[in-house]
Design brief:
479 residues; mainly beta; Immunoglobulin-like; 7-stranded mixed beta sheet; 5 helices; globular; disordered N terminus; binds CU-O-CU linkage; binds copper (II) ion; metal-binding; Copper oxidase
């Protein structure tokens, strides 16, 4: 067990951090970036998508030596890309062949809560579930699906259950550009090449695997044409690792957030923070000289004042090499990408506070996990599946002020679709559609949202360990 002191202050946590050991062997680097397989559409009807996902244990030769047992969507390591069009009628059959219950949550999509993978709707081992939903006509962007069973989400995602969704729209300003989807995940292996078990420090800070993967590959290589402008869709599928993306030698232009295109591009970015669960769409123009190469890296980021960054130097994620190809034609960036109609005056205002209870030996009686179960709070409480924390009404505009009253960063996520980020720390923000936004310690954000379907929606910290420990609440939306 872990040594307990009389009243362990929050800043004792850094001391509890076991130094992250680098694995003895690493997967091979520098392989051409793989494209994830697409989920096959079994429907021949226009505007309809019907697919089947088997959720099962599989073995993968990730490291030299013994194969790694993973849990996979359609054999994995990552789930297939589900590529849809705005307005599609979708039905995905989920077959649970795992030895335990699971659910599949459609992160960022405005689906009916009854098919959104709520922990109450667990699919038993051997069971199946058909998730049917219709996409809005005006929705496009990069989304994802992952498990959401009660208390088991972090472990199941660590076992590799996660997959991307792309929704395309006929008014896509970048339809003609080359495009890469980068699903970034991380992994930690034990001595037998298996997915390492969570440690107490993992539960506290969130688990960061030392081996960071792009599309399931270790430091792959992407070949581009000279002078090429490419769209990169990036999904942070890590449980807790913050990505401070940077591409030294090129600047980043952000053109989209979780819920699709920004109204106006943000140009000249030297770095961009992408927290767990978040997606971004970037445009990058690569150099003109054949043979030149760049590194997509993640820069060190301290998740709160008391925490040491997990890394002290830039962490390479992927190499981009300018290949000997016909140079790309110059690309001109439109000034206006999309129209984001602002959600107007709110009908309801709420204030939601994220906090932590300081560790105290008096609570340690029930053991470490019991104590940690009461550590990460929303509005002073731990998640209870049978409790409604907030009530709302279909069609009403809600304004939430979300405040972080804790010592570390938490990415705040709300189920059931996209919200508009209105302000950060009181400062108005350019219009964007989001479903996951970081909150630094003492930070606040203001968001506006409207739900069109009744039912229960969850809101939680997207550090999956915090979610499992109960940093989550229920909003009941009434008809
Ligand atoms: Cu991606 Cu409730 O989460
Ligand atoms: Cu979600
Ligand atoms: Cu958190």
């Amino acid at each position: 067990g872990m040594p307990m002191h009389d009243s362990m202050p929050m800043n004792g946590m850094a001391a509890m951090h076991a130094p992250s050991s680098s694995p003895d062997a690493l997967p091979p680097a520098g392989q051409p970036l793989a494209t994830l397989p697409r989920l096959a559409n079994r429907s021949t009807e226009a505007g309809t998508f019907s697919g089947v996902i088997d959720i099962a244990e599989t073995r993968h030769a990730l490291l030299p030596g013994a194969p790694t047992r993973l849990w996979s969507y359609n054999a994995g390591p990552l789930g297939p890309l589900i590529e849809l069009n705005a307005g599609d009628r979708v039905a995905i059959t989920l077959n649970n062949r795992l030895p335990e219950e699971t659910t599949v949550h459609w992160h960022g999509l405005p689906v009916d809560p009854r098919v959104d993978g709520h922990p109450r709707d667990a699919i038993a081992p051997g069971g199946s579930f058909r998730a049917g939903f219709t996409l809005p006509d005006n929705l496009s962007g990069t989304f994802w699906y992952h498990p959401h069973p009660h208390g088991l989400t972090a472990r199941q995602v660590a076992m590799s259950l996660a997959g991307p969704v792309i929704i395309r729209h006929r008014n896509d300003p970048f339809a003609g550009l080359p495009e890469s989807l980068l699903v970034i995940s991380d992994q930690r292996f034990d001595r037998d090449n298996q997915v390492a078990a969570h440690t107490p420090a993992d539960w506290m800070d969130g688990r960061e695997g030392e081996v960071v993967l792009v599309n399931g590959q270790y430091r792959p290589r992407l070949d581009v044409a000279p002078n090429e402008t490419r769209r990169l869709r990036v999904l942070n599928a890590c449980a807790a690792r913050y990505l401070l993306l940077s591409l030294p030698g090129a600047t980043l232009t952000r053109v989209g957030t979780d819920g699709g295109a920004l109204a106006r591009p943000e140009t000249g970015l030297s770095q961009l923070l992408l927290t767990p669960g978040e997606r971004t769409e970037l445009l990058v123009t690569f150099p003109a000289r054949v043979g030149q190469s760049l590194q997509l890296v993640s820069l060190p980021y301290a998740r709160g004042k008391m925490m040491q960054p997990e890394q002290t130097a830039a962490l390479p994620l992927m190499t981009v090499a300018v290949a000997d190809r016909a140079p790309a034609a110059a690309f001109s960036l439109p000034a206006q990408l999309a129209t984001i109609v602002p959600l107007g005056r709110p009908d309801i205002r709420r204030r939601v506070v994220l906090s932590e209870r300081p560790m105290d030996h008096r609570m340690a009686g029930g053991g470490m996990m019991a104590m940690m179960k009461n550590m990460f709070l929303i509005d002073g409480r731990t998640y209870d599946m049978n409790r409604v924390d907030l009530s709302g009404k279909v069609g009403q505009i809600e304004e939430w002020e979300v405040v972080n009253d804790s010592h570390m960063d938490h990415p705040f996520h709300l189920h059931g679709g996209q919200f508009q980020l209105i302000a950060r720390n009181g400062k108005p923000q350019p219009p964007s559609w989001r479903d996951t936004v970081n909150l630094a310690p003492r930070a606040s954000l203001t968001l506006r949202v409207r739900f069109d379907t009744p039912g229960e929606r969850l809101y939680h910290c997207h550090i999956l360990e915090h979610e499992d420990l109960g940093m989550m609440g229920t909003l009941a939306v009434h008809a």
